[in-house]
Design goal:
Helix content: 55-70%
Order of helices and strands: HHHHH
Shape: elongated
Structural class: mainly alpha
Largest sheet: none
Number of strands: 0
Length: 140
């Protein structure tokens, strides 16, 4: 006689709960969140009010930055990894516009460049620290 067991309907537990995060992870998460929100606010303000180019359609460039917010908040390692690659689009735009434009747009581009580089550093340090911590702790 065979008995079938129904699959467990409960969702899987999230990996690396925030309660287990060390000081480096908390600080890099705070920096990554601050830089991401800063890039969103800067991009919207720049393209809609401060120095708009065209009809403000370039404001859509901040839409990809909305996607990682939940993953950053929940310490999702994969979010930090792909965000460290995505941010290079904003580094490139900041570097290009900081050297090719003048006036207020040049200063806004420099701020974008600094925020994007700080975001890359925060993501890189976060991933390296979490991988080092995972190697140092023996499996349970």
């Amino acid at each position: 006689m065979r008995t079938s067991t129904a699959p467990d309907p409960s969702p899987p537990s999230p990996p690396a709960a925030p309660a287990q995060a060390d000081e480096t992870a908390r600080r890099t998460r705070a920096l990554a969140l601050a830089c991401t929100v800063g890039l969103i606010v800067l991009g919207l303000a720049w393209e809609l009010w401060l120095s708009p180019t065209g009809s403000g359609t370039l404001a859509v460039k901040v839409l990809p930055l909305l996607l990682p917010l939940a993953g950053l908040w929940r310490y999702r390692m994969v979010t930090y990894r792909w965000l460290s690659l995505l941010v290079w689009l904003y580094v490139g735009e900041g570097a290009l516009r900081a050297t090719s434009e003048g006036g207020l747009s040049q200063w806004l581009a420099a701020v974008e460049l600094v925020l994007a580089l700080a975001l890359f550093v925060a993501c890189s340090v976060h991933v390296r620290a979490r991988l080092a911590r995972a190697r140092a702790t023996p499996p349970a």
